[in-house]
Amino acid sequence: MFQREVKDSWYVNYNQLGYPHVQQGWVLPPDRHKDFDPFIVMADDWFKRGTFSDHPHRGFQTITYVVDGRLEHTDNHGGHSILEAGDVQYMNAGSGARHAEEAVDDDLIHTHQLWLNLPKHLKNTTGSYQNVFVEEAPVAPFEHGSLKVYAGQIAGTTGPMKSLVPIIMTELSFKEPGVYSYIIPENHNAFLFVRSGEVEIGHDRTTLTKTGVATITYPANGTEAESELVIKANERSKVLLYSGVPLKENVVTGGPFVMNSEEEIRQAFSDFRNGKFGPPVK
């Protein structure tokens, strides 16, 4: 079995932005999507109402994990929902989505939002949303804690998220010091984000604490055979882990759009200006 180690690691740097976007940091920073493929960026945000009002997207998927506060989602197709701590919302922007993601009332909302790329042949799919409430995510217990599964198949458990590009998304919770062996396919590119505590990753025992991020090694010609990532907690800890098969396609980003060429980005802006994303969010 291929043994995974830390490929690269860093800590999130935060910017104090004031009101209403109070604080923001890049878990996965921009312009490194080749390293993160099929993932693009991941933001760690604290914000008040008025930060992410009506805005468009095209060509990718978002996975928004609510850490604290209440997140109100509204879209221009009549969709509306409120998510709370531990809930996750999946969105396929596809050919075009227009929505708002706002704090409820006077809440200070804290979220992790991951952008997951779409392959070229799926960028024109119809937009959709799926809420995965914390109670719906199955939990696989182990000796020193538990593994909550939001997406994919792992530890004999299947998460409820139905992303167009299949991924694994889990939250690993250690209630005390201990070890967990994370088993995923060889051909998955993976990264992790330490939410709390202190962990040692891989047999090389790279140590990370809160807000630490690590990309994980994988074989260039990996198959669907199993590979192992050993995580040792030195104290009560929480770790988010994400993995997926790289798309290996050209990626061009432009504001809220992710496409395969500059021409497609220009077309997305033109379509938005010409009303092809539908009416504003009410």
TrEMBL record:
Cofactor: Fe cation
UniProt-listed InterPro entries: Pirin, Pirin_C_dom, Pirin_N_dom, RmlC-like_jellyroll, RmlC_Cupin_sf
UniProt GO MF annotations: metal ion binding
Annotated positions binding Fe cation: H55, H57, H99, E101
Coiled coil: none
Keyword Transport: no
Signal peptide: none
Stretches assigned to the Pirin C-terminal domain: 180-278
Residues annotated as domain Pirin N-terminal: 45-116
Keyword set, alphabetical order: Iron, Metal-binding
Cofactor binding remark: Binds 1 Fe cation per subunit.
Family of the protein in this entry: Belongs to the pirin family.
Name of protein: Pirin
Species: Salipaludibacillus keqinensis
